[in-house]
Amino acid sequence: MASFFSSSTADSHLATAKTVLSTAASVAATAMVIRSVASDILPEELRHYVTGGIRSVFSRFSSELTMVLEEFDGLVNNQIYEAAEIYLGSRISPSTQRLKVSKPDTDQSFILTMERNESLTDFFNGVKFNWILVCRQVESRNLHNPRDLNSTLKSEVRSLELTFHKKHKDMVLNTYLPFIIEEAKSMKQESKALRIFTVDYQNMYGNFSDAWVGTNLDHPATFDTLALDLDVKEFVMEDLKRFVKRKDYYRKVGKAWKRGYLLYGPPGTGKSSLIAAMANYLHFDIYDLELTELNCNSELRRLLIAMANRSILVVEDIDCTIDFQDRMAESRVATGNNSKQVTLSGLLNFVDGLWSSCGDERIIVFTTNHKDKLDPALLRPGRMDVHIHMSYCTPCGFKQLAYNYLRIKQHSLFGEIEEAIQNTQVTPAEVAEQLLKGSDIDTTLKQLVDFLRKKKESQELEAKRKEEQESREKEEQQRKQIDGGDKGEKFNKDDDDDDEKKSIVELNTN
């Protein structure tokens, strides 16, 4: 009897399951038929309206929230959509089946983005986020966005839909989306091709964007290849890294988000290479400014406004460009004695005054061979925050050059070369030139030893000649002082004789 009821119960459950499955299949088939008929009969606008209504009904019972990021906000690009597109390109999973690949001329690498109707899952702070790229076809040509150059070809409206649990809404708005914007900004900066700009004087008074003309910067210098002491390179890299991360701090203390560097030292010590390494490290464009070509402070301000953020402004050999050694330059401008009217106060206002705040995240680099010729007002902190002495070649710098040019880290001649470099004033550029000449490693290093020996002998002879010259000048000065003293005694003696004669005459007169 028990087995009979057990068998009957099992048959009942099986029949129920079959009924449920049959009903589900019928509903699915009916839904597919309705969808197919609606797709053929109903206009696209009505289909979207019906679909939206159904979604609205189901959303009332759902715990999920969907945010829609349209590609365009009116007639302008939607910044959040652009940032999300770049960000999601780096979150492509192995399960993704379709990708869109592009490479603009201004970028160094390929750009990956989601293809239409592809979905992607992202995790942030332990929260799951679902993304989908929705592309809706537009039948009327009048609906295309004139700012979207592609819309006239494919007539579609693109948007990203972000779905997540409703309880994370505040976190998405306050943390997740700002994080995406910052990440996309960094990714875009790192992938772009660097450019170097110079002033276009013919178009200076046109549009601000035309004031500078640029070309690609392919300088290979990096901090790994610079012939600088290790502690100097590490200091500069850490200073730059800290600077780009302190936007909120600069705002908090009320300072313009900029940093000034003064590179000083003899020619050939690597000042230009250091600037290129800074640009490659930060992925900042370079703006090369020649102050002698400017006629007034207003032109300087105009060029400042036309510069892009996240850039490096370079003024090379500032001691030779304009008379900044003292403030007499401004008085000469006031009296009309100088045709070039960019003044020290104009430059200081540009570096540390009100106009310095017309832009964010900028590096200002001045170079000079003679730091002592610069006006002290230009050197104080807040204007030139970091002073870097580009010295003659050191043993550490030589080892870096040997690795750069010869790909060696040690050799039997290194000890002799390093000792000679310590006792000889030789620039990294001179050492690099010698390393380029040889046909093999041994010959090249021997030629460098001979070059350093001759360089030292030449410097010793020059020092001896200079010492003898100074000695002769000193003796000549002492001789003139002695001769001047004898003449003074004779002059005083003649005056005493005249006084004596005068006294006698006066006495006789009386």
From TrEMBL:
Sequence ranges of Basic and acidic residues compositional bias: 459-493
Highest taxon above the source species: Eukaryota
Assigned keywords, A-Z: ATP-binding, Hydrolase, Magnesium, Nucleotide-binding
One GO term (biological process): response to stress
UniProt region (Disordered), positions on chain: 459-510
Catalytic activity line of the entry: ATP + H2O = ADP + phosphate + H(+)
Cofactor(s) annotated in UniProt: Mg(2+)
Chain ranges of the AAA+ ATPase domain: 257-394
GO molecular function term, any single one: ATP hydrolysis activity
Family annotation (Gene3D superfamilies): 6.10.280.40, P-loop containing nucleotide triphosphate hydrolases
Family: Belongs to the AAA ATPase family. BCS1 subfamily.
Protein name, per record: AAA+ ATPase domain-containing protein
The organism of origin for this protein: Canavalia gladiata
Taxonomy of the source species: Eukaryota, Viridiplantae, Streptophyta, Embryophyta, Tracheophyta
